[in-house]
Design a protein that fits this description.
By secondary structure, the chain is of the alpha+beta class. Helices cover about 45% and strands about 15% of the residues. The protein has a six-stranded mixed beta sheet, with helices on both faces. Strands 7-9-10 form a three-stranded antiparallel beta sheet, with helices on one face. A two-stranded antiparallel sheet has the order 8-11. The structure holds adenosine-5'-triphosphate (ATP). The site of adenosine-5'-triphosphate has 19 residues, from strand 2 and strand 3. The site of adenosine-5'-triphosphate (ATP) has 19 residues, from strand 2 and strand 3.
Length: about 375
């Protein structure tokens, strides 16, 4: 059975509580196993989910790692079917403790609608500790790709469409709820490692709390439009099929209703790349180019100046909130994540960048608001 046939069969599958055509299994796969030990469990899972594969010999399945991403383990499973057709899917295993920073219910709810609107990989199934999605035949963007004018225009155009997707349920913006939840967790940690604990104790949570309140109040005056936002538009979350010129947004783990300028400001912060070089933040001209294609993808030259200015202010104020969000996220990860990465250092990096940018961004917003 070819790929299209499998997906079509699922479209008409009975409602199973996960949504039409989305299969489910209670099985879970232990992420601490090595790939050779994990593979038979993954095959067992696939056979449980896809009855059409249940009688195939295990030798027809190949399991490989696509990415040991920061938060999840992503596997590619290729199945050599009896017809000679090779079908590929991805199996995403949630990383341990990721529930401290990711709301899986919210992610799953959104993904159904985003996938139906043509965004990301197609959602095929969920299981005990992860989900199965279609395999995207494309390459991941690099930080350098992300600022190439042709791709900037395409990202902006796709983001315009993404922000128009309606996800049923509450439309309350989540930014401040999420940040204050992170703040509560981040400000009550205790580290076994003495060095980490010492660094942690240098952080003034009173100062951070004051910063949050000030920024929340100011951004509230901007009346930024609410959209369903991706909230994590870094280069690793874009994939491009060069031959077809097709760009994919992936990874909706942090998606929520949010302020338009936050999603864009957060994206611009990601121009810094994996080295976190914030001198790469886009210039005003580069930002305006993005905004034109975001606001009016079909007539970018006709965007009124006042709309460009409003979005510029909105983006560069919410950009500050993105630093605070990821700084606090870093602190929680420093305690909870089993991944060997200096998340504590990441906190300082993002918080220091927030402090460096704060004055200029806030005075820009204040003079805009007072019309001076
Ligand atoms: N459906 C897919 N098909 C093919 N490759 C994929 C697919 N989804 C993700 N990838 C690849 O795996 C990489 C990691 O994916 P993703 O960002 O979803 O994982 P993650 O664990 O959330 O990573 P991180 O925490 O680093 O963002 C992507 O950059 C992309 O290269």
């Amino acid at each position: 059975m070819g790929a299209a046939k499998i997906w079509n069969a699922m479209e008409v599958a009975a409602e199973d509580g996960c949504g039409p055509g989305i299969r489910s299994s209670p099985l879970a796969v232990d992420t601490s196993l090595s790939l050779p030990d994990m593979s038979p469990r993954v095959i067992e899972l696939c056979k449980d989910l896809f009855t059409e594969w249940s009688r195939l010999d295990d030798s027809r399945f190949a399991v490989e790692t696509v990415s040991g991403g920061i938060t999840n383990l992503l596997l590619k499973v290729s199945v050599n079917e009896e017809s000679g057709n090779v079908e590929s899917i991805t199996v995403r295993l949630y990383g341990p403790n990721t529930e401290y920073v990711i709301d899986r219910e919210r992610e799953f709810h959104a993904i159904k609608y985003l996938s139906a609107a043509g965004f990301g990989a197609k959602l095929i199934a969920i299981f005990g500790n992860g989900m199965v999605q279609s395999f995207i035949n494309a390459r991941t963007l690099t930080p350098e790709d992300m600022r190439k004018p042709k791709l900037v225009a395409e990202i902006a155009k796709q983001l315009h469409k993404f922000h128009q997707v309606e996800i049923p349920g509450s439309k309350e913006p989540q930014l401040w709820n999420d940040i204050f939840k992170f703040f509560e967790k981040a400000s009550n940690l205790k580290f076994d490692d003495n060095e980490k604990q010492r660094k942690y104790e240098t952080i003034s949570f009173k100062e951070i709390h004051d910063e949050l309140l000030e920024l929340k109040e100011l951004t509230g005056l901007l009346n930024a439009p609410l959209v369903f936002a991706h909230n994590d538009l870094l280069c690793g979350n874009f994939m491009l099929n060069d031959e077809e010129g097709k760009l994919y947004f992936i990874d909706f783990e942090y998606g929520s209703y949010n302020y338009r300028g936050y999603d864009i400001g957060n994206h611009f912060n990601e121009y810094a790349g994996y080295e976190c070089d914030y001198s790469l933040y886009p210039s005003k001209d580069e930002q305006y180019y993005f905004f034109r294609h975001y606001l009016m993808p079909d007539k970018p030259q006709q965007v009124p100046d006042k709309d460009l200015e409003a979005l510029y202010i909105e983006t560069n104020t919410y950009m500050l909130a993105s630093h605070l969000f990821w700084a606090l996220w870093g602190l929680i990860q420093a305690k909870m994540s089993p991944i060997d990465f200096d998340y504590m250092e990441y906190f300082f990096l993002r918080y220091n960048e927030f402090k460096r940018q704060k004055q200029s961004s806030l005075s820009l917003a204040k003079s805009y608001l007072t019309g001076s």
